[in-house]
Amino acid sequence: MTRPGLLAATILSAAGLAASTAAAEDLTLCWAAWDPANALVELSKDFEAQSGHTMNFEFVPWPNFADRMLNELNSGGKLCDLLIGDSQWIGGGAENGHYVKLNEFFETEGISMDDFAPATVYAYSTWPKGEPNYYALPAMGDANGWFYRKDWFEDPDIQAAFKDATGRDLGVPETQMELMEIAQFFQGREIDGQTRYGVSIFTERGSEGITMGATGALYAWGFKYENEPGSYDMEGAVNSADAVEALEFYKELYETATPPGYTDSYMEQSLDAFKSGQVAMAMNWFAFFPGLYADPDVGGDKIGFFVNPPQKVAASTLGGQGISVVSYSDKQDAALEYIKWFAQPEVQQKWWDLGGYSCHVDVLNAPGFKDSAPFAPDFLQAMDAVQDFWQEPAYAELLLAMQKRLHDYIVADQGTAQEALDMLIEDWTEVFEDEGKI
Amino acid sequence: MTDSPITRVARATPPGMARQVRGLSDRAIAWIFVAPTIFLLLAVNIFPLIWTIRLSFTNFKANRNRPVEWIGTRNYERILTDSDIWLSMQATAHFLFWTIFFQVLIGFTLAWLINRKFKGNDLWTTIIVLPMMLSPAVVGNFWTFLYQPQIGLFNYVISFFTGVDPSSFQMIGDVNLAPWAIVIVDTWMWTPFVMLICLAGLRSIPEYIYEAAEIDRASKWRQFWTITVPMVLPFLMLAVLFRGIENFKMFDLVVQLTGGGPGSVTEVTSINLKREAFEKWRTGYASAYAIILFVTVFGLASIYVKALNKVKER
Amino acid sequence: MSAWSITEPTSRQKWIAGILVVLYAVITIIPLIWIVATGFKSPADAISYPPKVLFEPTLEGYVNLFTTRTRQTEEYLAANPPQTWYEEIVRQYDMVIAGPSRYGERFVNSVIIGFGSTFLSVFLGTLAAYAFSRFKVPLSDDLLFFILSTRMMPPIAVAIPIFLMFRTLGLSDTHLGMILLYTAVNISLAVWLLKGFMDEIPREYEEAALIDGYTRFQAFRKVVLPQATTGIVATAIFCLIFSWNEYAFAVLLTSGTAQTAPPFIPTIIGVGGQDWPAVAAGATLFLLPVLVFTVFLRKHLLRGITFGAVRK
């Protein structure tokens, strides 16, 4: 590295690369262990070849992901140089100084947030929400969607039976209530000599599962967190009559149309139920759709996809993450170099091709995008109407309260929907009072 | 403690004698030997304990860098009036009571049987002891597999003997069964501990007492209640004390088995505390909670030890 | 115990007692056998209904435990035939081995932290136990009680200030931090057990050595230590088993570099949910050392348990 030639080359490139090629670093990127993570490993090989840095990965299974990564950030750990953290962490990441603010870097490198879909920039990058302070680059667009057994839906015998039972034609549900009707129709039905069930939904207690699942119904009924955005005035919004109805709907769906034993199921269990042929429909994140479509048993012609059906309004629960540089890292320059590389349109295109969900407008608006995968149009449609949970720095407290109230009501069958939501307002009020926001 | 003649002689040795020997003085050696341990315990136990007490009067949150305020006893008031915390105390009490009940019952019976000294009892004792040596987290995690409604071995065995459909009940997912699911695994793991202590108790009973009873023509039944039980009782009570303290602290096994669910029916205090401290990051509040738990276990244990000493004196 | 003893159980009683105990032992060991067996099942066999007792053993679980795998295109698979037996196993699912998994590292962490803390707690514990046993340490009864009472704190409660302390000192997720922590937890039991063993060694030996011109320290090293070996070994095994099995501190205070196996094993996942054969394989390898210890050192171990408990 001390040879004059190399030194000169370094100085020359320093103008563009901010003195980053000085040393080959060992970078660690932390993310959840799931399908897209494997695609990212594949994609990152190009970065290793171009930059000379080595990429290591720490992938944590979803049920432990938030727990472990937030613990890591809060202990000021140096495990991760780059972190693809969940969208709700952005508030805490920014306010507690876990994430490096990227505005200056974006400016010097000419990375424009206008090149990324506005909904994703809003959700994954900004804090306070919607203001041009960026703490992450949108890395993985995602929303909660649905998929179904197309082969069963197109089976004439099943179609006839459905018509008999309901008087309607069997098809992709247009509303939440239709979804329940179809799910109940399939519940306990014999198909090809096996008992099948209606739908697999999220009911997990430990991390965020049941909240992410139930909000799919709540948002479709027009659920709002506050009467006025930013007012923390929740009475009448969180526990509105519509919200109560939506929650009762989700509980009924759980009780009448899910396979036995799905009391604590999240992504993996939902995939499992669908892949093993137990259920006719399932909810899950778009992130899994490429893998499902490629599945040898239930993929290809046998699977269809649809966006979270509206009831009163069209809305989907937001998933997805931005990529951030951890402020405790000693290798921030090399980490920023990765982000710079990742933001390039060509890399973003390859990211989508490999199974990641790019948020780059060049990729999403490309003429061939809608035909590039059967779920591509659905993805665009879902991302048009996404809603996210609180992204407050105290999000973990807010989420845990909701997890408890929902699981107590839906799975443990305690109290009523009205009571669950009333208690949730109490919990949340307490949190915001502690925060000094009310 | 062991006041043998030898030690008495040793103690009577004039202190000057030791001082005459070369090298460091005894007093210096004593301090050098004890100091590292005391220092480590001060650093890792006492200092943190004092810090926890301090924190418990603040609204500190370890994941935030906002100014910390003194809020007096507010955390304590909130905890003691929080109905959710009382529910988790109840879950702990249920777990404590039934695990101890079954472990004492089965453990004592096993010890009593093993004390019959049949051939090979050594080998079988070792096998019975195995579960308590293993990592509760790793084993607890595997029990979730045994408890799976359709494919799990536990449900299958139950259905084999009772005829119920193995997919008709969920040990972990059902509100009524989950509290028993954790009791079963804990009993499986820790009955051997109670058994070993009881065995030590049984073996400490001198043979001649039974012989004397035999001469008095006391029935076996009477011998059991008038000799065996009272003599083993102090040991049994010790075993209960240890199991009580351990299960009051219970975290790893239950967190792996049910995670506190469904709803919050198996959310024992340690899990509840973990959520407050390391998921919600309400450090001050959780510190107060920790102190309350510590005082509770310490208080209960002290009362219990007093009772135990009374039993011993008899 | 003479054969004439009137309290000796009859052979019929022995038979009944034996049968009942063996029955319990068999029931109690089934879950452990099931762990070992599941490690050698294929994923399909592991989740079959009814549960399979007889199956064709495979090393899939172990391969999955030690590797990470990715799906590959048919062209790639056709162009790169598998080179080794374990690649062949992975190929059944149209996958290729992408690299090693983290299990090896976690296991090594468990070894480093387990042995490190055991060594330290036995070393310090022996010194302290000797001092408590032989010298008049002021307030020694109070100190001993205090040392023990620290074990009454729930680990989660202890972890709150430790977490803050480690964060300030930069000990989070380090081997050193975990070794110190486990040592502090273990040392109370170590001192307590070892003091018992030391008390049983007659003082006359040392006094004789002192008169022969040994220094106190030499007497300790050359006379007392050799006699205390059994007790030290038994104590060491206890400390090792505790650190080996510990979960609560490990899950809260480590995230990667120093993470031990117990928090890691339950997070082993495969395609769609937990990969039970791999989890079982990981559990088997992890539990095996303790099982072996227990069986071979049962005399010391069982004595230690009752001794440690009863003396407290």
TrEMBL record, chain A:
GO cellular component: periplasmic space
Entry's localization field: Periplasm
Entry annotated with the keyword Signal: yes
InterPro entries for the chain: Bact_solute-bd_prot1, SBP
Keyword list, A-Z: Signal, Transport
Main location: periplasm
Signal sequence range: 1-24
Record bears the keyword Signal: yes
PANTHER family: ABC TRANSPORTER PERIPLASMIC-BINDING PROTEIN YCJN-RELATED (PTHR43649:SF34), ARABINOSE-BINDING PROTEIN-RELATED (PTHR43649)
Family per record: Belongs to the bacterial solute-binding protein 1 family.
Protein name: ABC transporter substrate-binding protein
Organism (species): Marinibacterium profundimaris
TrEMBL record, chain B:
Topology relative to the membrane: Multi-pass membrane protein
Cellular component per GO, a single term: plasma membrane
Keyword line: Membrane, Transmembrane, Transmembrane helix, Transport
Transmembrane segments: 28-51, 95-114, 126-146, 177-202, 223-245, 286-305
Example GO BP: transmembrane transport
Domain ABC transmembrane type-1 stretches: 89-304
Alphabetical list of PROSITE patterns matching this protein: ABC_TM1
InterPro entries documented for this protein: MalF_N, MetI-like, MetI-like_sf, Sugar_ABC_transporter
Compartments, record wording: Cell membrane
Major site of localization recorded for this protein: membrane
Family: Belongs to the binding-protein-dependent transport system permease family.
Name assigned to this protein: ABC transporter permease
Species of provenance: Marinibacterium profundimaris
TrEMBL record, chain C:
SUPFAM superfamilies: MetI-like (SSF161098)
Keywords, sorted A to Z: Cell membrane, Membrane, Transmembrane, Transmembrane helix, Transport
Entry's family note: Belongs to the binding-protein-dependent transport system permease family.
Cell compartment(s), UniProt: Cell membrane
Regions crossing the membrane: 15-37, 111-131, 143-164, 176-194, 223-244, 276-297
Keyword Transmembrane helix: yes
Source taxonomy: Bacteria, Pseudomonadati, Pseudomonadota, Alphaproteobacteria, Rhodobacterales
Name this protein carries in UniProt: Sugar ABC transporter permease
Pfam (any one): BPD_transp_1
Organism: Marinibacterium profundimaris
Ranges where the ABC transmembrane type-1 domain occurs: 107-297
Coarse class of the protein's main subcellular location: membrane
GO biological process: transmembrane transport
Membrane-related topology note: Multi-pass membrane protein
GO cellular component: plasma membrane
